[in-house]
Acid phosphatase
Amino acid sequence: MASTQCVVVLFLITFTSTAFSRSILETSPKTHHSFTSNPIFIRRKIPKDGNAFYCESWRLSVETDNAGSWTQIPASCLDFVEEYATGDHYSSDLEVFAENALEFAKEVNVSSIHGKDAWVFDIDETLLSNVGYYEFYGFGYYDVDALNEWVESAVDPALPASLELYKELQNMGFKLILLTGRSESLRNATEKNLLQAGYSNWETLILRGPSDTDKTATVFKSEKRRELEHHGFKIHGNCGDQWSDLRGFAVATRSFKLPNPMYYAP
Amino acid sequence: MASTQCVVVLFLITFTSTAFSRSILETSPKTHHSFTSNPIFIRRKIPKDGNAFYCESWRLSVETDNAGSWTQIPASCLDFVEEYATGDHYSSDLEVFAENALEFAKEVNVSSIHGKDAWVFDIDETLLSNVGYYEFYGFGYYDVDALNEWVESAVDPALPASLELYKELQNMGFKLILLTGRSESLRNATEKNLLQAGYSNWETLILRGPSDTDKTATVFKSEKRRELEHHGFKIHGNCGDQWSDLRGFAVATRSFKLPNPMYYAP
């Protein structure tokens, strides 16, 4: 009986939890939340309308931004997303993304504007991977406190293809700008995590300050890119897993979209 | 011996043919070219660096525009592209694209600006499908004369999901603008093909005129969208298979990218 109640409660938690947005990374950590167990999911396994490619097509709609402002992974695609994000397909997509970015970087005459050739990177799902969190809690399940605690614990590994790209760009002379929607309150944890994951010597780390709280990611990041331009930087490349990292104004010469079918940040 | 020579010649034709651009649709048809046989391809079947997901990742890089200005399908992905474009995966992607577009369209208050609520469609690989041409000649193989003749013959079928979307939008009161990089010289063939494929009652069909010849697709299409705005149209949606259909200025409120791993048009 107790276990039945547990299943029901977890089911309700899962399906009544509020829509996730990356803004949860921008609030201060609250109470302690221990990582004790995976929530139980009721997952619909039958593809939508019998379309075996539905989840692939849904993922493409997310990556091209056709899906727009989506809030939840379709129930029938939870296993698909888990398999994607924890398997070789995601790694392969990331490797090809990094190849594309590097190919463009090699066309840039880095020495042309001494010390001001810049490349912008987002952090979550761009330099660092929170897949461990999603794998532990179950894909499609989000808990603000737990995710904050996860980020505070600074245990994210680097996305290997991104780390390699980062180092290559650095060797080529680009100034690396880290521009994240994470709150200033997470600066120490973020720096610690980045260093532990192998990143170093960034030009600047820009987090969301108190005056940026009400801005969309697109506006916040565009404003910061414009400030960089006013300081003389030429933003050649920009890498992010969300379209809101890449669009708006003061956009880079080339923008590179990393895959992320796990969540949407407006 | 003769057949060996034939293979060698076809190999050379295949791998030395000039890079394709959709501009070939914008030149006048030249000599007669009969559709007699498929070229023979030497296809490298081994995935790049042993990465089983390479072609999937390459396709994603095209659809997100990470690949930028690409000219050739990777040799190891020719069979992959053929299987994609002639199978259920492409259809599924198109269906989800159309669902995304329709979902947004339903949010629009179409009656708000009487008779001026517009939706823009590209034509090739957006309303009409040239897959028959690519299937006949072999994916990755392009011949200017043959493609021109194909387009002149006006035999393209509709992409079913696009035709359904087109009709739904029309019923909702949107004015449908067809904006294509095809040359004015192809107006008759294009109108004939559209009508035969089931499209009708478009507001206007805009083709590339003599003064547009030297413009990139992005500039040509942006200028035409701006003209539409100057005529009082509000462009709510825009559908195209190339990023050059969707970007630039005077962009639609929402842009929808149809998949196309077959070719790139700048």
Observations:
- The longest strand of chain B covers residues 175-183.
- The interface with chain A takes residues 51-54, 56-58, 60-61, 63-68, 88-89, 92-93, 95-97, 100-101, 103-104, 254, 256-257, 259 of chain B (CB under 8 Å).
